[in-house]
Amino acid sequence: MTATAPHGLAEPHGVTEEQAQTHSHAHGEEVPPASARPKLAVWKFASCDGCQLSLLNCEDELLSIAEAVHIAYFPEATRAVVEGPYALSLVEGSITTPDDVRRIHEIRAQSGVLVTIGACATAGGIQALRNWADVDEYRSVVYAHPEYLRTLDTSTPIASHVDVDYELRGCPVDKKQLIEVLAAFLNGRKPRIPTYSVCVECKLKGNVCVPVATGQPCLGPVTQAGCGALCPSYGRGCYGCFGPQDSANTESLTRQLVELGMPADDIVRVYRTFNAGAPAFAAASDAVAADARDRAAQERGPE
Amino acid sequence: MGDIRILQPSGLDSLIGVLHERGYRVVGPTLRGDAIVTGEIRAASDLPQGVGDLQDAKTYRLHERGDQAYFGFAAPAQSSKPVFFPAEEVVWRGRRDHDNDGHFTVERDAVDEPPVALLGVRSCDLRAVQIHDQVLAGRSHIDAHYVGRRDGTFVVAVACSDPAASCFCASMGTGPRPAENDPQTGAPSYDLLLTEVLADGDHRFILEVGTDRGADVVAALAASGAPVTRGTDADQADAIAVTDAAAALQTRVVDTAHVHDVLRASAESPRWEDVASRCLACTNCTLVCPTCFCTTVQDVSDLTGDSAERHRVWDSCFSESFSYIHGGPTRESTKARYRQWITHKLSSWEDQFGMLGCVGCGRCITWCPAGIDITEEAAALGRMSGLATPAATT
Amino acid sequence: MSTAAAETRIAGADDPMVPRRYAITRVRQDTRDTFTLLLDPVDGDPLTFKAGQFTMLHAFGVGEVPISISGDPRNPAPLEHTIRNVGAVTRALVNAHPGTEIGVRGPFGTSWDAADAAGHDVVFVTGGIGLAPLRPAILDVLAERDRYGKVLLLYGSRTPDDILYGDEMRRWADLNDVNVQMTVDNAPYGYQGKVGFVTELITRAGFDPRRAWAFVCGPEVMMRSAASALAGRGLPAHRIRLSMERSMKCGIGLCGHCQLRDLFICVDGPVLDYARLEPLMNVREL
């Protein structure tokens, strides 16, 4: 996958034959020594740590995971640091500082398979709202000594900087998808990470369509599956935590949201949450904002 | 068979009871949250009595009817499709012995479930079951799990009295009164057919017997002391009046005489761009369609990879991954995917199976969050192709 | 239908959805990224098949892919598949060491039925790994070489290094009176052979279009232009056969993935005649 194609799947690259051999041998009755297991590293950039915690929340599977891989770097869980290269890197968080840019290239160079986890790493996160703001102004208002601060004007996904093998969407990521990506990695197969809409998950579960049956706004038709249709299963519209699906038609959905009575400001806001920086959602919010501006200008009339 | 009975509404529980006694799992319309869905029926109280629905493009709302009707609504949110063809099932389970050259064993997952009695299935959905029989069990290769679940089904059909604005079964020739026999196989369509009559404060079911099995159930009903009496030709006329009125209420139409050729001629129609600007590619139409049968397989393994399962899961021609081969999807654009779907339903299905793949239940219209209407798209294509009759109306 | 009838239809070892176990006897590297797998059944008789048919190959715990059989229909053991290493499943298959068990479903689909061309000239047009699904048909023809007129094999490859079955093609030319013509898309400096697309060979190839049959296999764009060039030389569409590729999950016409208008490519194809395919191939994204 190239940095300009942030969605969809690609074959992992950079796994050497030795690494492939290593994980195909990581089975059997007894736990192989750490040196025989593929090294796993978990990295953090601008984020809340929630996605890393999802890994620690895999309580039932955590022991089997620890037996199958050698957790070499995972500051949220252990202080031990084992040097690279790493067979598998999980990367949380977005790129917001010049130092982040340097560090992610180093990580990529040391990683066989690199998987980004969560909305920050895959779309820039909620902090990508800065992409629409004047960062210099924030800096001067918030910090007593802004001159000590080194930050970028934007919050960008990992795939804007280095090649990414797989993306796990969500705020936070889904535990089952996380285990799936590990199982797939260990068995040399492609993880089952659907890129279709949340609607598919609703229908597979037997959920009744929330916007059609209740008139509530729902981002499900433009949002990628993966959460198990969490909100619609409780009768709420989808909030879009998993970012745009592979064929998102936000223009059509925006028209539906307008018809359901949602004011333009709110529509801009629903597209600009955890995945504000995802290109399809960013463009959709910009279109609604521009349309609202034009309308307001027309209402004011010629000066 | 012309065997007419009258069943009082108080006798519905006895009917359900007789079906349970005979070992059937009874499945029918029931209320869940904001919709009528297809689910388990333990007693008549599980039926959505007194509830009606309003359905139109991208709208579904329930309301109190103000009467005691048990079946006073149109198509439930989902048809009986998942009863015989669940959204996900295990095809086989395998184990691998890692130290022994990857020696593995695979066991076919078998269906071991009691036979189903469909209670209150309407003619559109019943026709859809017959279509699935042809697609999944009527060709050289069959879906073993479908056959296993479908085998021995008892059908208590309901003649539809309250079509929704999205319905068009009359135009498709699939309802509102079910055909006595499957037009392809000639087999009886139902064991029993109920028509609910509410006129003049005289709430009753006119019960028509379609098979010997159905007659046995009626005999058992009578023997149990349930309120079943003999009916007359006048009662059957009342039943037919109910469905005639229901047919007359329908306004949506497909020009079935021309639609096959219209779609065949429309591969390059500019209409596809237009519909793609509205289509969300969300897959809802296909996943509520009672005849859509596309599935994918998913190979699931544990962390060690020594235990694996193959799952069969509903899929949709509206998802990009559906047509993926090495190098990319063959149907990359939404317009190509919509064209595939409607062309399959209303044209190539006939070439494949000798019937259209649409039963006029209207679910794809109701449950499309963008309100795309298959009848409107077919009519527009007809106009643009110049092949349709100028005024295709009821 | 009755329960008993249903059980007879679904029971037994021949269930097309359940993979049969085969052991890899040898993995032969053909080119940089292409390998041939030789397989023997773990138990039971070897698979018999017709030229052009495919199987679903299953790497345990990884997944399944449709692959055309590339072996000799008259000598079906061991079972041969030529595979390009392009994804997770194919990687697992070509990296497996001899003795490893894999799953096989099939054979599925239609045949080249090359014998229909008996008494006529035969033109095989192919590119890259497209030669693999065509090889069984070529072997069928060569087994009864004297029943056919001229036999031509027009083969295109990306580079000289990607040429598949190079030694075998030379043997066919030397021993079986096959007119083998090769071309490459890109060649290193100093390459002696032809450079260009395989369709360019069609215009000058020496066969009698009034009495020839053509069998074409390759990427869809290549097949489209090859079939059109053959038709342009006067070959009627019903004497041009192509092998189509579509997404396939079941192999038995149930999953719906491989549909091309009214065709289920897995059962109505993969081999189909150009008369049937031409109107479908000319519509984009059908």
From TrEMBL, chain A:
Residues 48-184 form the NADH:ubiquinone oxidoreductase-like 20kDa subunit domain. PANTHER family: COENZYME F420-REDUCING HYDROGENASE, GAMMA SUBUNIT, HYDROGENASE SMALL SUBUNIT. Gene3D superfamilies: NADH:ubiquinone oxidoreductase-like, 20kDa subunit. The keyword Chloroplast does not apply. Pfam families: Oxidored_q6. Keywords: Oxidoreductase. Residues 1-33 are annotated as: Disordered. The keyword GTP-binding does not apply. InterPro entries: Hydrogenase_assoc-protein, NADH_UbQ_OxRdtase-like_20kDa, NiFe_Hase_small_N_sf. This is NADH:ubiquinone oxidoreductase-like 20kDa subunit domain-containing protein. SUPFAM superfamilies: HydA/Nqo6-like (SSF56770).
UniProtKB/TrEMBL annotation, chain B:
InterPro entries: 4Fe4S_Fe-S-bd (IPR017896), 4Fe4S_Fe_S_CS (IPR017900). PROSITE patterns: 4FE4S_FER_1, 4FE4S_FER_2. It comes from the Bacteria. Residues 268-300, 349-377 form the 4Fe-4S ferredoxin-type domain. Keywords: Iron, Iron-sulfur, Metal-binding. PANTHER family: ANAEROBIC SULFITE REDUCTASE SUBUNIT A (PTHR40447). This is 4Fe-4S dicluster domain-containing protein. It comes from Demequina zhanjiangensis. The lineage of its organism: Bacteria, Bacillati, Actinomycetota, Actinomycetes, Micrococcales.
UniProtKB/TrEMBL annotation, chain C:
InterPro entries: Cyt_c3_hydrogenase_gsu (IPR012165), Dihydroorotate_DH_Fe-S-bd (IPR019480), FAD-bd_FR_type (IPR017927), FNR_nucleotide-bd (IPR039261), OxRdtase_FAD/NAD-bd (IPR001433), PyrK_electron_transfer (IPR050353), Riboflavin_synthase-like_b-brl (IPR017938). PANTHER family: ANAEROBIC SULFITE REDUCTASE SUBUNIT B, DIHYDROOROTATE DEHYDROGENASE B (NAD(+)), ELECTRON TRANSFER SUBUNIT. Residues 17-114 form the FAD-binding FR-type domain. CDD domains: sulfite_reductase_like (cd06221). This is FAD/NAD(P)-binding protein.
